[in-house]
Write a structure and sequence with these properties.
By secondary structure, the protein is an alpha/beta fold. Helix content is about 45%, strand content about 15%. It folds into two domains: about 210 residues, Rossmann fold (3-Layer(aba) Sandwich); about 40 residues.
Length: about 270
């Protein structure tokens, strides 16, 4: 399907791997000029090489969504390379502090909320003028099933992602009449480096293989994922790309679940 966004310019955070990287691949195929960003320039350069885009269509600049000075520097580099962006995809995030509530200290809460909630806030504050400039813009947040179905062993992450959904809804009310549409996508248990690390840790703790850890996690922790497998980043990226497109011209303030049925409610 032609998403009718050829010639648009996008910035994608958390894009050296996983959902962010796959979203960059889809948008590049649609003729979008893409800037990918993440913390480590070397990993970004490798990610850009794997995307194999035509010259002038892809740029890779390191940046930290938690640091306002870093974001300002990133903005300057993006502006010099492509000018004002039309599309912003906020995919950067961490699992953060894990354990039962009484086991997580204040620093664990602060660190997780700084990356997963204040990071998106600071990113949008920096790039919002771009998105409001041309009368057409798209802002997509990567949230999580955890935002509406919290798990007791990762409450800081759950709380942060619930905040992201509220942020997205609020922004969607503020700027839609200017042409900026804001939405969120909530994946569940996607095949990314983040869940690889989770399953490696689970395998070590349970004395099982990596594949057995995935199976037991699905059986015990995610029983409503009816397809009984991890999702693939491309399966999320396709939904993100749709929300970035002109095909989603009447979609605003929505949360699209890409979760195999994991959220056990309507």
């Amino acid at each position: 399907m032609d998403l009718r966004i050829s010639g648009k310019k996008a910035l994608i955070t958390g894009a050296d791997s996983g959902i962010g990287w796959s979203t960059a691949r889809v948008l590049l195929a649609e003729g979008v000029t893409v800037v990918i960003t993440d913390l480590d320039q070397r990993r970004l350069d490798d990610a850009a090489a794997r995307l194999g885009a035509d010259e002038g269509m892809l740029f890779a600049f390191a940046g930290d969504v938690t640091d306002t000075a870093s974001l300002a520097s990133l903005h300057s580099r993006v502006a010099e390379a492509v000018g004002p962006i039309d599309i912003l995809v906020q995919s950067a995030g961490v699992t953060g502090a894990q354990g039962l509530f009484h086991e997580i200290d204040d620093a664990g809460w602060v660190d997780t909320l700084t990356v997963d909630l204040l990071g998106p806030v600071r990113l949008v504050k920096e790039f919002l003028p771009d998105l409001r400039e041309g009368g057409w813009g798209r802002l997509v947040f990567l949230a999580s099933e955890d935002a509406v179905q919290p798990y007791d062993d990762e409450l800081p992450y759950c709380a942060a992602k619930a905040g992201v959904l509220s942020l997205a809804k609020g922004l969607s009310r503020s700027y839609a009449r200017e042409g900026l549409l804001v939405n969120a996508v909530s994946p569940a248990f996607i095949h990314t480096p983040m869940t690889d690390a989770m399953m490696s840790k689970r395998a070590d703790q349970t004395g099982t293989s990596f594949d057995e850890a995935i199976e037991s996690f699905l059986d015990e922790e995610r029983p409503f994922m009816e397809l009984h497998r991890r999702g693939e980043p491309d399966e999320v990226a396709d939904v993100v790309a749709f929300l970035c497109s002109d095909r989603a011209s009447f979609v605003n303030g929505s949360n699209y679940r890409v979760d195999s049925g994991s959220v056990a409610t309507i």
